[in-house]
């Protein structure tokens, strides 16, 4: 994880938007597709692990009474707080205590492949234990992640570790990403 943190810190040292979230048609389309993949018009609480600079939160937080994002990079968290002042953003490197328990929505957008297989399994277990009934949305990048894990492999590890309590099914896909959704303790939504 140290190499990943060093890589992410270096990316954010140059800019608050290292992936060009604000101007990339790919990112903007993915954000819109993620919002469209949600099954409810409103969620009391939401948790986004790996929230980055809050670009996705900007699209999803208006649907929630309380939106909490967590990211490993301080500069990203500061940028997220500035972007979505009504939400809560905290710095945390998973594995750690999740900043909220029993969220109604969990968002894992292009974050799983930054984790190790053991950490992915632990996150799946924590979510199954702490988020019964939560809708879980996983957005997976399908290109080269430049990490030890590729998107499909990371998603497969998460799916296996969360089963049978969480069964995800693909609800949207392009050549570059896919979105999977399920409910903890329920049938795939």
Fold topology:
Blueprint: H1 2-14, H2 25-37, E1 43-49, H3 55-60, E2 64-71, H4 74-83, E3 88-91, E4 105-109, H5 117-130, E5 135-141, H6 151-162, E6 169-173, E7 177-183
Parallel strand pairs: 1-2, 1-4, 2-3, 4-5
Antiparallel strand pairs: 5-7, 6-7
Helix pairs in contact: 5-6
Structure description:
This protein has about 190 residues and is α/β, with parallel strands linked by helices. The chain has a single domain (about 1-185), classed as Vaccinia Virus protein VP39 (Rossmann fold, 3-Layer(aba) Sandwich), CATH 3.40.50.150. The protein contains six helices and seven strands, in the order H-H-E-H-E-H-E-E-H-E-H-E-E. The chain has helices at about 1-15, 25-35, 55-60, 75-85, 115-130, 150-160; strands at about 45-50, 65-70, 90, 105-110, 135-140, 170-175, 175-185. The chain has a seven-stranded mixed beta sheet with strand order 3-2-1-4-5-7-6, with helices on both faces. Strand 1 (about 45-50), helix 3 and strand 2 (about 65-70) form a beta-alpha-beta unit. Helix 5 (about 115-130) crosses helix 6 (about 150-160). The longest helix is centred in the middle third of the chain and has 14 residues, at about 115-130. It starts with a helix and ends in a 6-residue tail after the last strand. The relative contact order is 0.14. The mean pLDDT is about 95. This is Nodulation protein S (NodS). One of its GO terms (biological process) is oligosaccharide biosynthetic process. It comes from Loktanella fryxellensis. GO terms for molecular function: S-adenosylmethionine-dependent methyltransferase activity.
């Amino acid at each position: 994880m140290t190499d990943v943190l060093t890589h992410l810190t270096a990316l954010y040292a140059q800019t608050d938007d290292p992936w060009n979230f604000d101007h990339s048609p790919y990112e903007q389309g993915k954000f819109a597709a993620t919002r469209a993949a949600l099954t409810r018009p409103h969620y009391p609480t939401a948790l986004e692990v790996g929230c980055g600079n809050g670009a996705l939160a900007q699209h999803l937080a208006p649907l929630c009474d309380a939106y909490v994002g967590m990211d490993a990079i301080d500069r990203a968290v500061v940028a997220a707080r500035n972007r979505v002042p009504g939400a809560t953003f905290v710095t945390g490197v998973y594995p750690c205590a999740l900043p909220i328990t029993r969220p109604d929505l969990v968002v894992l957008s292009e974050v799983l492949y930054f984790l190790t297989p053991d950490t992915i399994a632990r996150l799946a277990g924590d979510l199954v234990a702490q988020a019964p009934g939560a809708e879980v949305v996983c957005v997976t990048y399908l290109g080269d992640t430049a990490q030890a894990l590729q998107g499909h492999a990371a998603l497969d590890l998460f799916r296996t570790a969360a089963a049978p309590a969480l069964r995800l099914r693909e609800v949207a896909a392009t050549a570059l990403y896919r979105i999977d959704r399920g409910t903890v303790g329920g049938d795939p939504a």
